[in-house]
Amino acid sequence: MSMTDTQLAAHLAKIAGKILLQVRDSGMLRGKALGNAGDETANQFLVHTLRAQRPDDGLLSEESKDTKDRLGKSRVWIIDPVDGTREYGEERADWAVHVGLAINGVATSGAVALPGLDGGIVLDTENVAPLIKHKGKPRLVISRTRPAKEAVAVAQALGGETIPMGSAGAKAMAIVRGEAEIYLHSGGQYEWDSCAPVAVALAHGLHCSRIDGSRLRYNQDDSYLPDLLICQPELAEQVLSIVASGA
Q1: What CDD domains does the database record attribute to this sequence (predicted)?
Q2: Which of 154, 150, 175, 155 shows the shortest CA–CA distance to 165?
Q3: How much is the average pLDDT of 32-57?
C-alpha cells in the first residue's frame, strides 16, 4: 500500500516510539546507557525503512554520519530518533520522535510522536485540528535545564507563565496541543531538532521562524540552526519585537 509522505512519517514515528518503549521497558538499561541504546535502535529502524520506502530522497539524521549527498537532493528526510535523550533515559514523558521532510529547504511534511504520554500520541501535517485559544496570560515552554534568556525576558515582558519541559519536540507539540502559546529557543539546535516539529506546527497554523523573524531553512551545508520561535500567530509580532529590543 502506497503512503503519502505524511502518512509514512506518522507511521514510522509511531513504530519507532513503540520500539523505544520496548527497549525502555525491558528493564535492562537505565540513564545514559538506555538513551544510547534507544538512539541506536530507533535510528537503525528509521534509516533502513526510509531508504527502502523513499530511495531517491536525501537523509539527515542526528545519529548517522552526514555524507552531504543530501545537498544535491530537493527532498530530504530529517530525523531525530530520540529527541530528548536525557528525558528518555530518565524515563520521563517529555521526549519525542521526529520524522520530517524538507522540500527545497522548507519543512513541508512530517510527524512528531510523543510515545511517553499515556497511550502515545502522534501529531502530523495531515490530521490538523483547530488551534486552541487561551484567554489568560501567555504560557511559555522553556528548557527544564537551560532556560533561554530571551524566553525569560519575553515571559517577564508579557507577564506570562513559564513551563519547564524536556525535548524540543515535546515543547513544540505543547503549542500545537494548546498547552502553551509560545516556544522560544536560543541556546543552539540542529535541523533535526526542529524540522518535523516546525512542519507540524506550520500545518496547524502556528507562526514558525528564527527569533529575528527570518525564515527557517533546512538541508543546509551546516546543519546547525541555533534558534527557533513557535507561537500563536497573533503573538508573533509582539514576541519578535521584545526579542529585538533586548528587553
Answers
A1: CysQ
A2: 175
A3: 97
Establish whether domains 5-124 and 139-245 are of one fold: no
83 assigned ligand-binding residue: yes
Instruction: Check the annotation: does 212 bind a ligand.
Output: no
CATH value of 139-245 in 3.30.230.70, 3.40.50.880, 3.40.190.80, 3.40.50.1370: 3.40.190.80
Name the pLDDT band for 240 (thresholds 50, 70, 90): very high
Given a contact cutoff of 8 angstroms between Cβ atoms, the answer to whether 150 and 226 are in contact is no
Other Cβ atoms less than 10 A from the Cβ of 34: the count is 22
Mean pLDDT, to the nearest integer, of 14-40? 94
Task: State the SS3 of 209-242.
Answer: ECCCCCCCCCCCCCCECCCEEEECHHHHHHHHHH
Residue ranges per domain, the chain?
Answer: 5-124, 139-245
Q: What are residue 140's phi and psi, to 5 degrees?
A: -115, 130
Q: What is the pLDDT of residues 196-229, one digit of tens each?
A: 999 999 999 999 999 999 999 999 999 999 999 9
Tell whether residue 221 is among the known ligand binding residues: no
Contact 21, 96 (CB under 8 A): no
Any binding-site annotation on 161?
A: no
